[in-house]
Amino acid sequence: MKESFSSCLHHPGQAIPSGCSTNEFFCRSYSEAMALPSDQPSLRQDLRAFFFLAPFLGVFLLFIGYPLFYSFWISLHRVTVYSDFYNIFGTMEFVGLRNYTDVASDPIFWWSLVLTFVYSFLTVIPGIAVSLLLALLLNQKIRGFGLLRSGFYLPNVFDIYVVGVIWLLIYRPDGGIISPLLRLIGLESIADQGILNNPNTTLLGISIAMILKNAGFGMILFLVSLNNINESIFEAAEVDGATRWQRLFQVTVPLLKPTILFLIITGTMGSLNAFGEIYAMTDDRGGPSIEIAGNTLSSARTSGYHLYKVFNESMYGEAAAISYFLLITALLLSFASYKLLGTNKK
Amino acid sequence: MKRPPMPSDSYENDMSKLAKMVSMALSLAILLPMMLLVLLPMFWMVLTALKVPGTAFKLQFVPDTRLYNPTEQFDPLPVAQLSPDAGWMYLEYTVAGATTVTAQINNPEGELEEIQLSRLGTDVWALQHGPVPPGEYGYVFSVSGAAPVPDPKNPQRDGRNREQSMLSVEAGKIVHAPEPKFTAFSDGGKLKIEFREEPGKEMGLQLFEVDRSNPDRQGTLYSPVGEVISLSESTAGVFTGEGEAPTGILYFRLVETLPFGTALGKIYTLENFKAIVTNPSFNFARYFMNSLIVATGAGLLTVIICTMAGYAFVRVPFHGRNTLFVVLLSSMLVPGMIYMVPQFSITLSLGLMDSYGGMIIPHLANVFGLFLMKQYIEQIPSDVFSAAEIDGAKDHQIFLTIVIPMCLPIIVTLFLLTFVGQWSNFLWQLIVNTGYSEVLTLPVGLQQFKGQNANEWEKIMAGACFSLIPITILFLFLQRYFLEAVAAGSVKE
Fewer beta carbons within 10 angstroms: which end of chain A, N or C? Predict the structure, then answer.
């Protein structure tokens, strides 16, 4: 349908479309098209492209492509001289794979991965449920619902650190709003201590804040997908005698599978990258301490935050090694979710 | 296709209308509380930022037009004061059931003078003495015949104890006279409280009975004398209590009725904003400008380079076009934290620490942005390009006269996405700014401010407003583009 004319250009050897003989414009275009640069790659095309691609590729190579490999070099070295901040990478010492073996034997690192899984479990699934609920409720043509949609999406554009600081205040046992509510339902001890100060609820508190912040994103994606579902499928299900709940779980949810997969992958990535919210809502250690198998560990030091802490101590080699562990984790997770959920591409 | 209306139609319509209304009401019953929850941080931030310094933890949001003065104690309290004519000493003592009340006055020369007070009301004893020369006077009340009245706050005191106090007199003027705001006494079995206030104020009075079983508690409201009266030109208002005058200790407080504006000013203020803008070490106005420069710069440059690259990918058949695109796309699978160490090192060696460039440049190669632009340019009919090419237009002319104007909607979307992303890019801005940075942005500035003023939550929240409010306004005006961007993002899946 689109570009019927350009199809002439794409296949110069093809016969002139019959319509062209009667249409002066097309015929003129066609004859001149023969003189135009062809669609075949050539050195000339490469030069043309280079001018337009250079700025993008330049920044990409310098700050995304090269770092992936440069990071490996860093991971084989260790900082030796702390005095010259601006040349700290130039004076690193080669240590081989020591950083990797050190990270692999560090309980704090493995614990941070465990916490990352807990965190993504706490945020991703409930987050998708909340987004889906909002989308299903808002998928009605009622005046004023557009405003609600915007309202739910709004926190998505906020700075995660700033939002985290506000939640820190909201969760405070003195002066916050959550503790009085907890007292109402009889959870006095948690209320007095504060959700974020109790090692068992720190991550839960952060997760709730983040679910509420990000709910609008999933909601919009679900709304777009719901709009794309053909009405007739529901009608058919209704004719077949499916109840409301059956229709929801056997028709709607399977059709939303690509969106759910997308949200799972981005959500898991988000948990791996989680930093701003942890930084804002915990103290310097990454949450109150807990004792596990003789190790004193922090209750909210997820992998992203752990990486930052190591980085912040100028242990750049170790941080780079952790980065590769996280990269492998991320790729495995993406692959696993894709295999588990993304079999049929719609 | 229209069929004639059936009798059941209107019934069905009514039913479906009803069902629709019920479903809408149910939806709203879930949606509105959810909305409140989702926007809770926003509301909390604004309310806290507007609170009077020091009251961040007070859970009061609705202004109270009633100003409660500190609770006063009506007690057999010695009252000594100077009479309006300077140099005259007025002594007053209120005690229930006394037969005599004596005051011992110790004048500056050290002479002791004993004077009997005469009865003024049922329980009120008073004496005007003088005139007395200037100086410091001590006085002691002795009471006989009074029933012991234990003071719940001070069990050692009973009605028989001697009350001592000091007052000083200077020639012609009061130096240190304990002029009570309140004079409470019972008059003919009725409680009378006199107070001096500025004229024109609306005042009320609340009385509390002492709960003797629990000395720490103020007890219940004694009597609803709290009717509000307006004071005339006179300087004193007089309340007369209902019921019997208490023999024990009575607590009361004055309730002032404030104009709404004044009451609002008691809990809300703009002072926090003023304070953080004029703070020399944490200048949030400067942080705001820096954030604006970083976000706008990053937005503009990203749009330019992504549009250019998108054009090349769509219109120029260069070697390895598809391979390159796949390579670029696959970089999106890598979690952003991975780049932290090497990007920091590169930024450091390029000398971009503490600079706008250090914050802007590393994030310009936005693969998702490139993807958006490529997709959009592909939708432009190639006839448009062909026509221009036939007319001999060069690439840069096509780019400027066709691509940019036709891609304007997606350009705005990408600009806004980048703008918001960089406005809120806390981690990177934290990393590339050292403690000496002149170009701190809002989130990092807030972090540093919070580090040094951890307890000034009203000001911290005022700083947070600088970050969230502008972005909210931007979103509300341009939400169509934001939501489009999200929708566009979902297409790629």
Answer: N
Q: Are B467 and B442 in contact (CB under 8 A)?
A: yes
Structural element, H or E, at residue B105: strand B100-106
- Who contacts B385 (Cβ-Cβ below 8 Å, separation ≥6)? B315, B398, B402
Amino acid at residue number A310? V
Nearest CB partner across the interface for B467, out of A149, A162, A319: A162
Within 8 A by CB and 6+ apart from A260, the residues are A128, A253, A341
Give the helix, strand, coil percentages of chain B, each rounded to 5: 45, 20, 35
Best CA proximity match to A206, nearest among A270, A113, A292, A148: A270
Which among B389, B475, B490 is the nearest to A36, CB-wise? B389
Determine whether the interchain pair B334/A327 forms a contact, defined as Cβ–Cβ distance below 8 Å.
yes
To test the contact with chain A by mutation, choose from B316, B330, B383, B440 the residue with the greatest count of A C-beta atoms within 10 A, namely: B316
Task: Give the ipTM.
Answer: 0.82
Instruction: Tell if the CB–CB gap between A150 and B479 is shorter than 8 Å.
Output: yes
Report residue B422 as tokens. Answer: 């960089």
| Helix A316-341 × helix B340-349 angle, to 10° | 140
Per-residue pLDDT of chain B (493 residues; tens, 9 = 90+): 445 555 555 555 676 788 878 888 888 899 999 999 999 999 999 999 999 888 888 887 887 776 666 665 555 444 555 555 556 777 777 666 677 777 777 777 777 888 888 887 666 777 777 777 777 777 777 777 655 444 444 434 443 444 455 555 544 443 333 444 555 555 555 555 665 555 556 666 666 654 444 444 444 444 444 444 444 334 445 554 444 555 455 566 666 677 788 888 888 889 899 988 888 888 888 899 999 999 999 999 999 999 999 999 988 888 888 899 999 988 888 888 889 999 999 999 898 989 999 999 999 999 989 988 998 898 888 888 888 888 888 888 888 988 899 999 889 989 988 998 898 889 999 999 987 888 999 999 999 999 888 888 999 999 999 999 999 999 988 888 887 777 766 554 3
For residue B155, say if its preceding peptide bond is cis, omega within 30 degrees of 0: no
Which strand (E) or helix (H) includes residue B238?
Answer: strand B236-240
Q: Is A328 on the interface with B (CB under 8 A)?
A: no
Judge: A67–B447 Cβ closer than 8 Å, yes or no. no
**Phi, psi of B260, rounded to the nearest 5 degrees:** -55, -40
Residue of chain A nearest B365, judged by CA positions: A60
When computed from its CA atoms, the radius of gyration of chain B, rounded to whole angstroms, is 39
Q: Quote the pTM value.
A: 0.76
Chain A residues within 8 A of B427 when measuring between CB atoms: 275-276, 308
One-character DSSP codes across A263-299: HHHHHHHHHHH--HHHHHHS-TTSSSEEEETTEEEES
